[in-house]
Amino acid sequence: MKKKLIYFHRWLFWTFSRLFCVVYLRPKFKLEVRNTEQKIPKRPFIMVSNHGTFFDPWLIGHLSPYPLSIMMNEEGFKAPKFVQWYLRNIGAFPKKKGESDIAAMKYTLKTLKEGYPVLIFPEGQTTWDGQTQPVFSGIESIIKRSKLPLVMMRITGNFISKPWWSESFRQGKVIVHRNILSVDQLADMSKADIRDAVIQFIGNNDLNNTEMLNTRFSGAPATVGINRFMWMCPSCSTEDHIKGEGDTVQCTKCSASWSLDAHFRLTPRSDNASEIGNLYDWSMWHKQQVKNKISDADATDILTANTGVHYCDVTDLGEYPTISKGTLTLTKKDLSFAPEDNAVEPFVLSVEKVNDYVFQMKTIFECRAEGKVYKFRFEDDSAMKWVYYFRYLNNYADCEERGYI
Length: 405
Known about the structure:
Layout: H1 2-29, E1 31-33, E2 46-49, H2 56-61, E3 69-73, H3 81-90, E4 92-95, H4 102-113, E5 118-120, H5 139-146, E6 150-156, H6 158-161, E7 170-171, E8 174-181, H7 183-187, H8 191-202, H9 210-213, E9 218-219, E10 242-245, E11 248-251, E12 257-260, E13 266-268, H10 279-296, E14 302-312, E15 322-331, E16 334-339, E17 347-350, E18 354-360, E19 364-369, E20 372-377, H11 384-393, H12 396-402
Parallel strand pairs: 1-8, 2-5, 2-6, 3-4, 3-5
Antiparallel strand pairs: 6-8, 7-9, 10-11, 11-12, 12-13, 14-15, 14-20, 15-16, 16-17, 18-19, 19-20
């Protein structure tokens, strides 16, 4: 009886949330669902999807008539009380961002055994540049072990509509494609086959997607906050001088400027502005520059640095109070923080002992070293670039090539 009451509560809450999605989100994103001849199976099942925007859990989750348990970034649970209450009632549960999480995997299997379908984003975070990121290995083990149907979703147009750094929204079209593998189909597949099937189906590049390029997107340009994403100038190669305003992206160091359209294509606006293509091309150029800098540097050469960085804590309500403010510096050997005040002593972390490096809430670079979590907040500079450097210091290029971590 208790289980039935719990399920009824979940179902009721889920139904109201689905109504919000139908009335508000579907029109806002002009959502179109394809492959509808493949019906959502009876519960429980596993649903996986690529991840392009904060709204994805609702854009695809509401297609399930059954209440889903949604695996979400644990940082989302450090939020105002109402948000925490909503996430608990919607059936969300936390997972460490940017890393494998054994506890979350065990909870997933437990939830499936209780009869609730589970929604997982195998990338572990939203795409940075419109291209689906490598997935975390382990998803294939959950699918194989559960012996349940697999609902694969691919969302296109979501990144263009609302990229992670932007404060504005563009309306065009968001399309959800789905493919469902039955229990019998999965039984004949190896774990590697299942992983490859997931990677192949959810893979997407929003900025190079032909259908998206032929779809009209309208709304405010996504230049405000672009310095969180693009930090290196393709004309002068300096860092942390990119600014955005209106439809213009400019380097304040060399004054090179580009216009940015609704599909994130860049057109040189000044004589010294390099041809760069779209933001995905710029992102790929960033990656190559980072790899080149790492390859050319000696152990103690400075790879990157920022001043005015907030070394901070985090509260249960999602606030990031500053502990100290100072300069963050990275070499191939060490990550060091030199405070401007006496609030903390300077500290140095060995790069080989730093792991679980992610960026949170658009402005926070977070890492772990010898069991302790370090959070650094950036006011105007890019927190994401620090993850780039750490990734390529740790052979991330191999993960990109094979499609999984």
